[in-house]
Amino acid sequence: EDQVTQSPEALRLQEGESSSLNCSYTVSGLRGLFWYRQDPGKGPEFLFTLYSAGEEKEKERLKATLTKKESFLHITAPKPEDSATYLCAVAPNDYKLSFGAGTTVTVRA
Amino acid sequence: KAGVTQTPRYLIKTRGQQVTLSCSPISGHRSVSWYQQTPGQGLQFLFEYFSETQRNKGNFPGRFSGRQFSNSRSEMNVSTLELGDSALYLCASSQRVLDTQYFGPGTRLTVL
Predict the structure, then answer these.
(1) How close A95 comes to chain B (CA, Å)?
(2) Contact assessment for residue B91 and residue B46, using Cβ atoms and an 8 Å cutoff
(3) What is the reported pLDDT for A2?
C-alpha cells in the first residue's frame, strides 16, 4: 500500500530561521510528487510538482528536492506569511493521490 | 483564469439525509477529483472523473457517489449521512489525467 509520511508534524520558526520539511514515501511506481500549501479553512494551494530523482524546483523562499525515497521542502529565511500547513502527495501508477498528514509551520516575527 | 469553484461553501445536515455538492473546474480542465479532509484521517481520495467517466475510486462506501457533466462540471452525492461524514470536501481539477491538480476552497459539511 502507498504510504506518505511527513515530518515533523509541527515546526515553529523565528523569522529568518531557515529549515527543512521531510516527506518520505513508498509507492508502486512514482508518477509525480506534489507539494501544496494549505491555510486554515481553505483548499490546498499548489506549489511544486517533481517527477524524477534529482529534480529541484524553486519559488521565492521555497525549494523542493526529490530523491528515490523522499522529498524535502526547504524554507529559506521564512516570513510570518509562510505560516501554513504544507502537504506532500504522491501519484502512483494508478494516479490515486496519497497525501501525507502535513507539517504545520508557524513563523514568528 | 478563474479557479475551481465549489458550492455551497457550508452545509449543515442531519443524520440520514442526503447531500449534493457541486464543483466547477478551471476552464479547459477535463479531469475532476474529489477528496475528503478530516482532522483524523487527513486528505483522502474519493474518486476521479474524466470526460464524464469515473476513472478511479477510493476506499469509500457506496453511499458516496459522483458524476461529471459534458461541460466538465461535477457533483458528488452522499446518501444516508452519518456523523462521521462531517468533513471538508475538496474538489480538484486538472487539464488531463496525471496533470497537476488545482484545488477549490472546499465545502464544509457538518452532520448533526
Answers:
(1) 6
(2) no
(3) 81
